[in-house]
Amino acid sequence: ARDQAPRGGGGGGGGGYRGGGGGGGGGGGGGAAVENPVDAATAGNIAGSIVFEGDAPTMDAIDMSSEEACAAKHSSTPMVQEVVVNGNGTLANVFVYVKEGLEGLQFPTPGPVLLDQDGCVYLPHVLGVMAGQDITIRNSDGLLHNINASPTVNRGFNSSQPVSMETTRAFSASEVMVPLRCDAHGWMNAYVGVLDHPFHSVSNGSGAFSLSTLPPGEYVIEAWHERYGTQTQTVTVTTGQTADVTFTFTAS
Question: What is the largest CA-CA distance in the chain?
Fold first, then answer.
């Protein structure tokens, strides 16, 4: 991971970060820019939804009584985000990505993505990035947070983040998933999927996901959920068409 000088003061923390270079342009890091190998005129798409079968488990309420300023930011009692079943019977926060089929291709690194700490929760709870892509981590709360990343492939980091501070991190290798937590607030956690390409999505409040502008071909698509594990499907993408895919996770 990499740590740039944060806004609002404060130190970086930790060694072993990718050095040099500013943030999120197209080239990612200081080397020659990589051109997108996908021809949009011949590309296709994958889209679908994550269905949930069975009774939705009851999630615990988060007790924020020790942090009244955070509790005041929520219009209702915040709940643990481990399983979020939408009103239409679909599952949110499922990380969907191309697992196989893009070997040998290199893609330009997208610009930064934002991970916010707001109301003593991570927003979003699940996100995806490319290896080398900047993650801007913001503290929007009026109190001290701590960011503890515990990867198994990448190098972890564990640093405090004072009020109104922003820091920038980047993971150097593919890894699904990297867990994050706040040691100061034990209920705060999030997950980051790190890939060598930009074709990833997280199911939303209606269970939908999409992977756009893929080269024609056959792909293995994986769906990951923090409680229910992973599922894969083989999907064929054809020019100008959108392949429809449904994953079904069952209560356990």
Answer: 55
**How many Cα neighbours within 13 Å face the side chain of 240?**
1
How wide is the angle at C-alpha 215 spanned by C-alphas 218 and 201, nearest 5°?
A: 85
Between CA 109 and CA 139 the distance in angstroms is 25
- Segments making up each domain of the chain, as ranges: 44-250
Reduce the DSSP state of residue 226 to 3 states and report it: coil
Give the residue, 162 or 106, on which the prediction is more confident: 106
- Tell me if residue 199 falls in helix, strand or coil: coil
Stated pTM of the model: 0.87
In whole angstroms, what is the distance from residue 68 CA to residue 35 CA? 49
DSSP string, 75-89: SS--B--S--B-TTS
Q: Residue 59: is the preceding peptide bond cis (ω within 30°)?
A: no
- Nearest alpha-carbon partner for 223 in 110, 115, 93: 93
What is the number of other CB atoms lying within 10 angstroms of the CB of residue 113? 17
**How do residues 172-220 score in pLDDT, each as one tens digit?**
999 999 999 999 999 999 999 999 999 999 999 999 999 999 999 999 9
Residue-wise over 199-221: b if at least 16 C-beta within 10 A, else e?
bbbbbbeebbbebeebbeeebeb
Amino acid at 10: G
**What's the CATH code, domain 44-250?**
2.60.40.420
